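Quick check before the chapter quiz. The format below is the same one you will see on the exam, so make sure you can read both the input and the output lines.
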Amino acid sequence: MSDDLAPLQSFEETVRTTRWTSLFPALEELCRASIGHKLFSCSMFRMDRAESGVAARIYTNDPKNYPLSGLKEIIPNRWTNRVISQRKIFVANSVDGFSDVFPDHALIASLGLGSVVNLPLFLRGSFIGTVNMLDSAGYYSAARIAHIDRLLLPALLTFEMSPEAKA
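Here is the expected output.
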């Protein structure tokens, strides 16, 4: 396996063991090695209809600033249109690029974060969640996220196999 696929091989080895109770830490490491991030979280969604439903943060690497959360209502905006309706990743490389869709943009900026990529996950045609990565301003260049699609199957497996996503 080539070096650029070594993080995926590490994730696969974790899946094959019997020691894990959640795959989210392994997914976080795969995302860190593949794309990079300072803040990493995963959110599950329960949709009533297009762009309407509830969401909950089910994994975070920063529980102090971004704790696990209960269900919160999804407010339709350009993010929901892109991620949920169009089924495309959301990328913004400045606070100004996401301040209109993330109510917590001031907190994000205060943590020294200024760029975001949200990877939407669909299973059997239904939107089930997002993998969320944040880093410094300008971090998520086209070259850096060119192979983000490699994360889809590991992310889907993580959501399907980990108890956090079943709540």
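If your answer matched, good. Helices lie at 6-16, 24-34, 78-85, 95-98, 105-110, 152-161.
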